Amino acid sequence: MAENPFFAPSDLPYQLPPFGEVREEHYLPAFERGMAEHLAEVEEIANNPEPPTFENTIAALERSGRILDRTATVFFSVAASNSSDGIMAIEKEVSPQLTRHSDAIRLNRALWARIKQVTTDVPEESWLLEKYRDDFIRAGADLSEPDQARLRELNEELSKLSTEFAQSLLKASTESALVVTDPKELDGFDEAKIESLRKDDGTYVLPLLNFTNQPGLAQLTDRDVRRRLYELSVGRAPGNFGIAAEMATLRAERAELLGFPNHAAYSVADQTAKTVEAVEQMLGQLVGPAVRNARKEAEELAEQAGFAIEPWDWSYYSEKVRQARYDFDGAAMRPYFELNRVYRDGVFFAATKLYGMTFTERPDLSGYHPDVTVFEVFEEDGDRLGLFVLDPYARENKRGGAWMNNLVDQSFLFGLKPVVMNNLNVTKPASGPTLLTYDEVNTAFHEFGHALHGLFSQVRYPRVSGTSVPRDFVEYPSQVNEMWATWPEVLANYAKHYETGEPMPAELVEKLKAAEKFNQGFQTVEYLAATLLDWAWHKLEPGETVADPEAFEAIALEAAQIAFPLVRPRYRTNYFAHVFTGGYSAGYYSYIWSEVLDAESVEWFKENGGLTRANGDHFRRQLLSLGGSLDPLTAFRNFRGREPSIRPLLSRRGLD
Ligand SMILES: [Zn+2]
Q: How far apart are CA 550 and CA 558, in angstroms?
């Protein structure tokens, strides 16, 4: 095993992980050695005979665990994007071990005693020290021995359940896929789309995306096929209902051990929201108007359809109303949204205009799959900034949705520049160019906003690098970056016909903008229903169990006054990966919480002349470069020059 590529730092540029050398059999030995090495380092720090200082305790902890960090970074990136039976088996084995490992450090009494004695006057250090103290207390460092023993059991059980939930969800996307034998049933899809769904056995298989309203519902003309697709979507992975209920009960017990009335209170305490009341006060302002808007939209759809519509009809008829009212045809736009052009002439172009940065493809560098592309990123003056890695396509072994992750964290401590990655789930055409939907274009800009947060990071310590900010803040820079997708100068630069190079006709652009506010009631209710469902699960009282999770779900939505049969939650319990696998438990509210800051910032950019280097530099200096090294709301105030107001958000979503 001397050849294990995780045992030494990568010698590729920017320490890009050597994906080409990594084999499945490298992971377990690397995890094993990584955890052992990390524990030995931590023991040495905890038992250092010297008096505790920031340098020999906190900075030393930041330096520890390098093999484990390298291994886990690559493994979980591959597990999310390019999994296999072997990877899934390793994940099942290693997840509870990693939980035990992290508990062994956070519940180490000698170490905790030392951390409590550290003092410092350096602002950056004292902020990090506070973070460490908070992390340890939240992990149970101050609990009695028996309580800590129970906590370890709970954490391990939760980690197992979460892996099970994720794996059955991944399988469900194909196991619960819509299968038809007669292509006529797919009427509404274009030829190329139908062809891309055909399997060797002559059937046509439409896999599920990870949210309720499958995109196909907007196009499929056969009402019964729509019903089947919808029911497959909401009913997938039924075993996950029980897992979710069990997790919610265990999380409530853990919250009580840690001194909180429920998991929601525990979860928001270290966020910018801080309290359950703050979140509920915010959501309370949105629910009523959003449901009213959705009901109004439903009436228009029924009128268009000529009958009382069902949930699987919503997207289909809203597309019809959109076409009738705005003469807007989503499909007519796709030839103007070719994947490579969207990135090079859109996403990257906007970043160059704002920040001066430039991008060069590095075909000599590669990822874990041939469809992964690596770009080197430079400052305006030619200084090297980092790497941007892009994996745009959906695969059966890739989890749903879109996300950003770091392959290398920026830190001055290690002298490392960032390597950041964006994952999308765009269907790869059987042949020819990849044409995106407008939603996918928007997602590309969104995820790149996270990438900027990672690439611009200028901090000393890895713990606060880049996107290591509270999760109800992390969506803010990414949402701001969405504004450039339709910014005239940017749109004109990338929205060109893939065959003729003709710019998108002005009237299509106008329609795109006019239609943006359309269907906002639906989108807001769908989002809020998921948020309030997440919230209900995590306000369970300690000791409470849920025997019938589906009934619980229905009652929770009713109680939150968001129940509306035509608009189900964006995620039901059984496929709510954000909260049962993804670290967003009692945290799905974060998107709209961040959107308050986003809407404020979009206003700021508009007030100050939009797409300029000066504006980009201001946003970069006051916000993007700071990572989590400063109180996030202070950073926002320094950028915006005032406290955030909810008004721009209400107006954007038509809720005022
Ligand atoms: Zn995001």
A: 13
Q: Say if residue 157 is exposed, middle or buried (CB neighbours under 10 Å; 0-12, 13-18, 19+).
A: middle
The model carries a pTM of 0.92
Ligand 1 centroid vs 475 CA: distance in angstroms?
A: 5
Tell me if residue 304 falls in helix, strand or coil: helix
Q: Going by C-beta distance under 8 Å and a sequence separation of 6 or more, which residues neighbour residue 327?
A: 511
State the pLDDT at residue 1: 46
Cα of 599 vs centre of ligand 1, distance in Å, is 15
453 CA from centroid of ligand 1 (Å): 11
Is residue 447 flagged as an active site residue? yes
Ligand 1 centre distance from Cα of residue 586 (Å): 16
pLDDT at 498: 96
Q: Catalytic: which of 62, 125, 338, 447? A: 447
Angle, helices 145-175 vs 239-257, to 10°: value is: 160
Residues (pLDDT < 70) of the chain are 1-2
Cα-to-centroid distance, 403 and ligand 1 (Å): 6
> What's the burial of 400, exposed, middle or buried (CB within 10 Å: 0-12/13-18/19+)?
middle
How far is 407 from 586, CA to CA, in rounded Å?
27
Q: Using one digit for the tens of pLDDT, what is the confidence trace for 49-75?
A: 999 999 999 999 999 999 999 999 999
404: which strand partners? 422
- Summarised one tens digit per residue, pLDDT across range 283-325 is 999 999 999 999 999 999 999 999 999 999 999 999 888 888 8
Q: CA–CA separation, 226 vs 318, rounded Å?
A: 14
What CA–CA distance (Å, rounded) separates 374 from 367?
7
Tell me, in angstroms, the distance from the centre of ligand 1 to residue 450's CA: 7
The helix/strand/coil state of 531 is helix
Cross-strand partners of 435: 338
Query: What is the distance in A from the centroid of ligand 1 to the CA of 263?
Result: 23
> At which residue do the structure tokens 């000393």 appear?
460
pLDDT tens digits, one per residue of 380-407: 999 999 999 999 999 989 988 899 999 9
Q: What is the 3-state secondary structure (H, E, C) of 58-84?
A: HHHHHHCCHHHHHHHHHHHHHHHHCCC
Q: How far is it, in rounded angstroms, from Cα 142 to Cα 148?
A: 9
Is 226 within 8 Å of 448 (Cβ atoms)? no
What residue type is assigned to position 152 of the chain? Answer: R
Go through 185-206 and write b for each residue having 16 or more CB atoms within 10 A of its CB, e for each that does not.
bbebbeeebbebbeeeeeebeb
Neighbours of 153 (CB within 10 A): 13
Dmax (CA) of the chain: 80
What does residue 23 show for φ and ψ, rounded to 5 degrees? -115, 155
